Amino acid sequence: MVFFAKSLLKALGVPRMIITCFFMLLCVLAVIYDLSLTTLLSNAVVRMAMNSVLVLAMLPGIQCGIGLNLGLPLGIVGGLVGGLLCIEFGFSGLPGFLFAIVVGCLIAALVGMAYGTLLNRLKGEEMSVTTYVGFSIVSVMCIAWLVLPFTSLKLRWPLGTGLRNTIGLDSSNFKHILDDLLSFSIGDFTVPTGLILFMLLCCFLVWLFSRSKTGVAMQAVGNNPRFAEATGINVDRMRIVGTMLSTVLGAVGILVYSQSYGFMQLYTAPRQMGFIAASAILIGGASTSRCKISHVIIGTFLFQGVLTLGMPVANMLVPGTTLSETLRILISNGIILYALTKSGGGSRA
Q: Going by C-beta distance under 8 Å and a sequence separation of 6 or more, which residues neighbour residue 77?
């Protein structure tokens, strides 16, 4: 390992090497402290699969040239509205989940088109704009959740007005609709087959799109917009396509996350999800200008694996502290800061 350190560092990159070594250290510490490593790894796989579509949403944004789409809460809000309408109209099971996805994607596509148009008018400042838009939509929706005319008792507060902060899912809607599909256990290790298959399906569809004529044109715009424009590609249109796809995947991702988590969280909950997704894809080896689907899968597993193992290990090392949450904040924000320093802190015009 020492002899090939430079080669490994060059191939994997600093963030992935650090997080990989840290993950391996946590596995060793889990065994030393007599924690169930099999159960922890099983939880890590579930968390990887439930977060992967949100991380995948970062890929089209990077490929089309807008960089890290920290405005992901736009798509997340669309997905949440789709989920709320599913509960409001009394849909349940797989049809209800698909209804929520379709409605969420339609809302996200419309919002994503307007969002992409805005980013086209502010080329070179995408990182600042996406961050501002992400925080702004969360603040606006904090007001909207109080006034939207939902009537279901599952959604509204028993007294007063507005929607609940945390809305529990159950068998009457779409809780664990993917997690329980074709799942099986090997000892203490539970394989969420349906959740993993859905994750792979989303990855395959994005990969298929990237091989299409539109997908290739979109990536050409992200790699070299001036050359792409010289070859006759409509740069602004391709950027809008990538932004829309990123926003739509955000809507799908939050529904996948919510059905696995068992709750839908409103108000300020979506605020940090864009940063978490950005951290995961950067850990996987992506940059602000280049990424692949393999970066999504590897980065999500490493990031969620560290969080899953870090909490019980931290509680054993220093009982009664918030060390694990501190590590999550340091890792997520630190990786984004590292990526921005490597890219010069700006976006490509």
A: 107, 111, 137, 138, 141, 270
pTM: 0.90
Q: Closest Cα partner for 197 from 42, 52, 38? A: 52
Instruction: Give 200-259 pLDDT, tens digit per residue.
Output: 999 999 999 999 999 999 999 988 888 888 888 899 999 999 999 999 999 999 999 999
**Dist. CA 70–CA 47, nearest whole Å:** 21
For 154-171, the pLDDT digits (tens) are: 999 888 788 999 999 988
For the chain, how far is it from start to end, CA to CA, in angstroms? 40
Residue whose pair of structure tokens reads 């994503």 in the numeric block: 112
